[in-house]
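Quarterly update, task 2.4: FE2/S2 (inorganic) cluster-bound model.
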Amino acid sequence: MRQATMKGIETLVRESGAYVSRRVFSDADIYKNELENVFGRTWQFVAHDTQLPKSGDFLTTFMGEDPVLVIRQEDGSIRAFLNACSHRGPLLCMAEEGNAKSFSCPYHGWVFGADGTLLNVPREGGDGYHHQLDKGQWGLQSIRVESYKGLYFANFDPAAPSLRDYLGDFAWYLDAIFDPLPAGVEFLGGTMRQRLKCNWKIAAENIVADTYHVLAAHAVAVGVCMGDRGMQIGIEVGEKTDVDALGISATIDGHGWNANFDGQGIFGLFKDPAPWLAYVNRQRQRYIEHLGERRAWFVGSSIDGGVFPNFLFVPGFTFRQIHPKGPNECEIAMWTVVERDLPPDLKREMVRFNARMLGTSGMFETDDCANMERIAMTVNATQGSRRDSHYAMGLGRERERSDLPGLIDQRVSDTCFRGYYRRWAEFMQAESWREIPLAPRKLT
Ligand code: FES
Ligand SMILES: [Fe+2]
């Protein structure tokens, strides 16, 4: 039976998302509700084109807590299925990725094709089912899939708007990552995974919205990478006050984009930034011609953000997805994503950098995970769960701008937090997609 929508949401998310009850990070009923009302209706990332290059290539992932099998079809399309045998429900495919023509259930041996059809059933005839089983009715449960610029998203809800409408004007920002000339992006290597003892939103909000933590939480990591140079950048950023110098945070329908405009933000962390900057300067000219001056600002700049609810990116470094595993546990899946025509030695350096810095045991990652699990310790305690979390930085300062889509504030601001939790509340209380608004599109 469908989980009821949340009543009294206004007591959990108050003042435009500036104050959020810590119960949303610990309460088991709220969690059950969001599996249905958020993960049952939103578009969730399931694969990138480059992860499944050939027919029969597959990977396994999750939508909410539901295991999902994603397969490249013979006609080149991508389809997604519940990764559960339709006979009695066990996990069908246990491999993380691979290539297969069919999938055989380990329990009684039903065999499913890459298109989800039930191909073969042991004892289908007189020694078992007496030819009375209608195999056409017992294929894998198919899930709706749509794509944007090489990204495949899936949605359980047939009434959801198209992926393109779901992304709305946020696609304008995504293009700055996923539409680079001439070759697009590439998901490199495999998937890194780790489990964290905290609610999934604590891990998601860190990248969708939290630019404030970097200089405190990552002070040591920045110092190790950059020495005094890192401190100097911190001081310079602190002295700037106007939006264009600092960069922006932008929120649209719960999606978040936080970016500076210096064109070299991420590369200062490398031992030798020179080859990176040379590459970026070449790319910037292409961006100006292809996407215009405004988005060329983002090339090489430090960006973090995400597509609501759980697909997150720190371009140049890791892309990730946060899968819920109970009210107080989540799994982070991570990938290294680079521009496809990046020189091979720089690709290798990026993979190594990610392993050291943002991978499961990387310096930045361990800083963040320690703070996330410390939040989980207090929000799961009796008194601690009764307080609100504070997301009021910059409240009332968000503005629309003619040259940038979304609601905009300076980069270090809680704007994207507030947008994220306002959107979360909209999903939690809506009976159906008919009650969930989409921001009007200004851009094509
Ligand atoms: S449960 Fe899969 S074949 Fe029986
Ligand atoms: Fe961080």
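Highlight for this quarter: Residues 85, 87-88, 90, 105, 107-110 surround FE2/S2 (inorganic) cluster (ligand 1) (CB under 6 Å).
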